[in-house]
Amino acid sequence: LAQLYTPLNQLGYTYRSMNQSLVDTERLLKLLNEPTEVNDRENAPDLIVENGEIEFDNVNFSYDDHTTALRGVSFKVPKGSSVALVGESGAGKSTILRLLYRFYDLQEGQGRILIDGHDIRDVTQSSLRKAIGVVPQDPVLFNATIAYNIGYGKLGSTSEEIEAAAKSAQMHDRILSFHEGYDTKVGERGVRLSGGEKQRVAIARTLLKDPPILLLDEATSALDTSTEKDIQNALQNLVKGRSSLSIAHRLSTISSADLILVLKDGQVVEQGTHKELVAMDGLFASMWADQVSTTDEHHPYAESRSSK
Ligand code: ATP
Question: Which ranges are annotated Basic and acidic residues under compositional bias (predicted)?
Answer without folding.
Answer: 295-308
